[in-house]
Amino acid sequence: HTPHTTHHTHNTQHTHNTQHTQQRTTTHTTGGLVTSGGGLNPFTSHTVAEILTMDNGTTFRTHVAHLRSSYHSNNEALCSYLATAFSQSEFSFQKPDGGFFVWGEISPKLQPDLQVLLGNCTEHYGA
Fold first, then answer.
1. What is the CA radius of gyration of the chain?
2. pTM of the model
3. Least packed by Cβ within 10 Å: which of 1, 64, 76, 80?
């Protein structure tokens, strides 16, 4: 193929995929699948299934890889900050291998400061 032919084939495939997606969306929204009847919502379930299998799962795997990288960077930044902001006697924690949360133990000597912080957050932010 020449570069021009390849580009044309790619655009034709993209147009076909877009039309196919629009057709399926119309079918799902007008076909009664939006009402769940108390069970798992079939529209949502089918939409998730489409996303998981789109491009043989490549798009989903790429997205998950991006999220994992982002969460890893956030975890590194948070743990680095905690390690420099607090001494081990004030706040101790284990750096997690994964997940969303860093669990730690706060020294009893910091408890009064936390009560003030909580009061400020509640007053200013409604938290």
1. 25
2. 0.52
3. 1
Q: What is the 3-state secondary structure (H, E, C) of the chain?
A: CCHHHHHHHHHHHHHHHHHHHHHHHHHHHHCCCCCCCCCCCHHHHHHHHHHHHHHHHHHHHHHHHHHHHHHHHHHHHHHHHHHHHCCCCCEEECCCCCCCCCCEEECHHHHHHHHHHHHHHHHHHCC
- The closest alpha carbon to 104, from 87, 91, 85, belongs to 91
Question: What average pLDDT score do residues 19-40 get?
Answer: 64
AA letter at 93: F
What tens digit of pLDDT does each residue of 38-82 get?
Answer: 667 788 888 888 888 889 989 899 999 999 999 999 999 999 999
What's the pLDDT at 51?
87
Using the predicted structure, report yes or no on whether residue 22 has a pLDDT greater than 70.
yes
N- to C-terminal Cα separation, the chain: 60
